Amino acid sequence: MTAFSPSRRTVLLGAAAALAAPRIAGAQPAAVKLGILQPVTGALAQDGEYGRLGAELAINEINSTGGIRALGGARIEMVFGDARSNPEGGTAEVERMNSEGVVAVVGGFASPICLAASQAASRYDLPYVVDVGVADTIVTRGLRNTFRFGPGFGKVTSGALDNLVKINEAAGKPARTVVVVHEDGLFGSGMARLMQNELPKRGFEVLETISHPTPARDMSNVALRIRALNPDLIIPSSYYAEFVLLSQTLQQRRIRPKGIYCVLNGAASNFRFVREFPQAANLVMDVNHWADPRKPKTAELRRAVEAQNRFWLYNTPLNYSAVMLVADALERAGRADRAAVIDALGKTDGSFTRHIMPYGPTRFENGQNQAAQAVNTQVINNDIKVIFPEEFADARPVFPWPAN
Amino acid sequence: MTAKDLLPIALFAAVAALLPLFVTQNTWLNFAVFTLIICLAAQGWNILGGYGGQYSFGHAAFFGTAAYATAILQMRYGMNAYPAFAVGVAAASAVGAVIGFLSFRSGLRGSYFALVTLAFAEVFRVLANASEVTGGAAGILIKLDVRPANFQFDSRASFYWIALGLVTAALVVTRALERSRLGAQLVAVRENENAALALGVDALRVKLSAIALSAAITGAAGALYAQYFLYLDANIAYGTWISVEALLAPIIGGAGTVFGPVLGGVVLHGLSEFTKTLVGRIPGLDLVIFGVLLILVVRFPPREIPGLIRMWRARR
């Protein structure tokens, strides 16, 4: 696809038009109100902003390409809510969105916000589409209104382990010993426990599990311990700053394992890390949400995001896809009615192709998209490439790392 | 305690109870319920901090203990929500007594007491974050099963009335404390602990009773929070946010007065909601305005709102 394809131009034009004239009164069919819930203040503000960006891009694109056809070309009107990085904030905003008559809510980002907000929405049979929140409990509570297009924690981690085995086998089994480094808080400890239980079953030997606090100011001891243990593979579960520190320390001390394999890492699939610390980031692997690199729309969206001087993070494609999912359900429901949309969301199938995630044909079971999966990414030549599964990959894994 | 003492409380409860008849929008009821939960937590703080002069920065320890106890008893031991609520409140009270015993017996006062309570709350937060029984990082979810028998209601108004009932009960308890021997001794300890000791007041016993009562009331707020939002994790239950909310409301509304915490809570949250609607859609701007207003309220003495009203009246 060339850089000046017509559809990209339409997207940009649509975006410009929407920015220049947010309210054009006209004799159009009534706009469909869609609630977009993101934490744009507080600790999760950055993630929330990138989520909102994805939703905005999707809404602009829908509106500039004829709106919802089944509703006579009705435009989608965004009703934005700031979840303030906490569950009460999310609940309060869902209540407001409900009173403003939205047909569905998309977003939430963090699992606690998704849990509380989807529950508040369920009181009104208001469809709620989770964008990121991976807690498995989100879709196991039996809420009819709650849907998740992306994968849950269980799916991500089991996929991560299976893919590790496959990548290792394809490379001729260079890795046998592992050191797990994890932050001692919420998600790190859980992940470390899982790795300790599951890796030996898959033929890996866990030499040691090293924990560190968040925030950590120094990783020298961890690095020295790793040097002494000399593992083939390092599996870190840390947040952004700590992982950056660890990978930098490893690089300074010239500790080069055969690979660094992260799962849902705060940094490894983040272009900020790649831009700011290109050498430390080089060849780090991660299992995370990521957009399908083979779809032309992905490149188009990425250019639109980067044109705004923003990074390309997974929040944007996930929210873009979740809004497209609701639009698709509206087309099939044929009316802006909550019950009809819930019904249509549950019946979504492979004909929904306007999303840009690397998933197979969509199929919902108890609100969870069964085709959703995380993919393996690797930082190669200052870019984040998908290396596994093969059908979505745009690069081959560099594993084991070259010796120099 | 005379009928005259209870009249303002009865009046407040009656007027507030009528609110859902006029305000049917759930947006507002949700806001009102959350405000009442904060008011309740603040009333607990007021007993120890306002009347006893023991400024705690760690009321999250009580809020979180009751919240977790309520949730865990229901989810892991299948207990009904109402007894679980009661056990949660009792557990918070017990934790209060233990923390109080450890710190008051060591003679910790003022900022030392504040720091120790802060540390206790943090320890609880870290433990809850790592432990299995609290669900660790993933948190704990109370099963959604909307039936009055489960302490879950279809309408937000029912919750509002329950929260209001608890706030009213706490008001009555505070008024009773104010009029009781214990209350007088508590104020004596606040004003001058050494003088109170010299007059034969058992300061340790008085402070322990106060912290147990205080923890129970803040615990009730925590248990109610768990029952209302049905989800907890360590940062919600034991996070510093609730410790700050619990002490900010009485300090603004008037610490050591019966209505102080309620007034402060309503003003604080009303202000925050007002600024939210005022500035509309620019994220964060309302928080800035809220912060500025807060500084103005605290900056100009007499600090509390009743004091401001008195000052204004005196000028006229």
Automatic annotation (TrEMBL), chain A:
It comes from the Bacteria. Keywords: Amino-acid transport, Signal, Transport. SUPFAM superfamilies: Periplasmic binding protein-like I. PROSITE patterns: TAT (PS51318). One of its GO terms (biological process) is amino acid transport. Residues 32-380 form the Leucine-binding protein domain. CDD domains: PBP1_ABC_ligand_binding-like (cd06340). The keyword Transmembrane helix does not apply. InterPro entries: BCAA_transport (IPR051010), Leu-bd (IPR028081), Leu_Ile_Val-bd (IPR000709), Peripla_BP_I (IPR028082), TAT_signal (IPR006311). Residues 1-27 form the signal peptide. Belongs to the leucine-binding protein family. This is ABC transporter substrate-binding protein. It comes from Falsiroseomonas bella.
From TrEMBL, chain B:
The chain crosses the membrane at residues 7-23, 29-48, 55-75, 81-104, 158-177, 210-231, 251-271, 278-298. InterPro entries: ABC_transp_permease (IPR001851), LivM-like (IPR043428). It comes from the Bacteria. GO terms for cellular component: plasma membrane. One of its GO terms (molecular function) is branched-chain amino acid transmembrane transporter activity. Keywords: Cell membrane, Membrane, Transmembrane, Transmembrane helix. Its main location: membrane. It is found in: Cell membrane. It is a multi-pass membrane protein. PANTHER family: HIGH-AFFINITY BRANCHED-CHAIN AMINO ACID TRANSPORT PROTEIN BRAE, HIGH-AFFINITY BRANCHED-CHAIN AMINO ACID TRANSPORT SYSTEM PERMEASE. This is Branched-chain amino acid ABC transporter permease. It comes from Falsiroseomonas bella.
